[in-house]
Specification:
The protein has a domain of 58 residues. Helix content is 0%, strand content 59%. The protein is globular.
């Protein structure tokens, strides 16, 4: 079973498994786009307009993934994981 809680004042979602075994926190930007995930480690997503271009660690110093888009495409053409 999974519990879900929404905090509109901070644009954050929080889900937690029964018994507290695992938790996932989702944070959104003011436009409602997913900005950050946290489940043990935190990942921050960087956008160029509505296109996801990168994912980084919480400090913004380590690249987790990079994304390349084509013209008029709403999904990445290719992505690279790691540095």
């Amino acid at each position: 079973m999974f519990f879900h809680q929404w905090e509109p004042s901070v644009h954050a979602d929080r889900g937690q498994a029964v018994g507290g075994a695992s938790a996932l926190t989702l944070a959104y930007d003011p436009l409602g786009r997913l900005k950050q995930t946290a489940s043990g480690a935190t990942t921050t997503r960087f956008l160029d307009d509505d296109r996801l271009i990168g994912e980084y660690n919480a400090a913004g110093t380590t690249v987790a993934a990079r994304y390349a888009h084509g013209a008029g495409v709403d999904a990445p053409l290719v992505w690279y994981e790691g540095d």
